Amino acid sequence: MAEQSSEIAFFDVETTIPSKQVFINGMFCKNPNDVTPEDFLFRGLDVPRNTDNKVGSNVTLITATQLPGLNTLGVAMARVDYAPFGLNPPHTHPRATELFTVIEGTIYAGFVTSNLQNGGNKFFSKILNKGDVFVFPQGLIHFQFNIGNTPALAISALSSQNPGLNTIANAVFGSDPPISVDVLSKAFQLDSNVVKYLQSKFGISVQ
């Protein structure tokens, strides 16, 4: 789905042979003859999501995967539901800046810049209330934490139709096969037994 002149259009791919299909940013460009209004529609963003999980949050991400009409348009969005004291854990979006808006509740949000010229890592954070907007720059580790005892809700806009998501703790301590305990012990300056314990919390068994 590409933009041609000033009109929204799709790449004209006149083949159904997988090896000859056109991909943009990892997404297949649909033949314009096969496009329907449903390619531009997503329903149900108003429905609260289930936050009964270990971190107490639920992210409904709307990218070109869920809404094909976004492909090549450079935007995506997300609904984020939080249980009381729920957390959207530290993560990154490698291909997108995020514009985060609080709809309900009080959110403690922050991001970290790393490897500055002085060798430091600077932390930026704010407590956000209903109607507040906060920016998470592309590729930086960030999080949101509901500091209230009632559910919270936020809506995010992202500057890519395929922003990507890397959840830090899951990636580091829950990879399959697991990262070497020796590597993680040295990287995080932790005892090897602590590393094994953390890996076990993500379903990884290391002898």
Layout: helices, strands, pairs:
Elements: E1 3-4, E2 7-8, E3 23-24, E4 27-28, E5 57-62, E6 76-82, E7 87-92, E8 98-104, E9 107-113, E10 122-128, E11 133-136, E12 141-146, E13 152-158, E14 166-167, H1 168-173, H2 181-188, H3 192-201
Antiparallel strand pairs: 1-2, 3-4, 5-6, 6-13, 7-12, 7-14, 8-11, 8-13, 9-10, 9-12
Helix pairs in contact: 2-3
What can you tell me about this protein's structure?
- The structure is a single chain.
- With 207 residues, the protein is mainly β.
- The chain has three helices and 14 strands.
- The chain has helices at 168-173, 181-188, 192-201, and strands at 3-4, 7-8, 23-24, 27-28, 57-62, 76-82, 87-92, 98-104, 107-113, 122-128, 133-136, 141-146, 152-158, 166-167.
- A hairpin with a 2-residue loop joins strand 3 (23-24) and strand 4 (27-28).
- The protein is globular.
- The model is unreliable at 1-17 (pLDDT under 50).
- It comes from Saponaria officinalis (Common soapwort).
Quick summary of this structure?
By secondary structure, the protein is mostly beta strands. Helix content is 12%, strand content 32%.
Strand order within the widest sheet? 5-6-13-8-11
**Beta-strand content bin:** 25-35%
Detail the poorly predicted runs. 1-17
Q: Span between N and C termini?
A: 48 Å
* Count of strand segments: 14
What order do the helices and strands follow? Answer: EEEEEEEEEEEEEEHHH
Number of helices: 3
Please tell me what the overall shape is.
Answer: globular
* CA-based gyration radius: 20 Å
Structural class: mainly beta
Main β sheet profile: 5 strands, antiparallel
The helix fraction, in percent, is: 10-25%
Rounded mean pLDDT is: 88
GO molecular function: manganese ion binding
Main location: secreted
Family: Belongs to the germin family.
GO cellular component, one term: apoplast
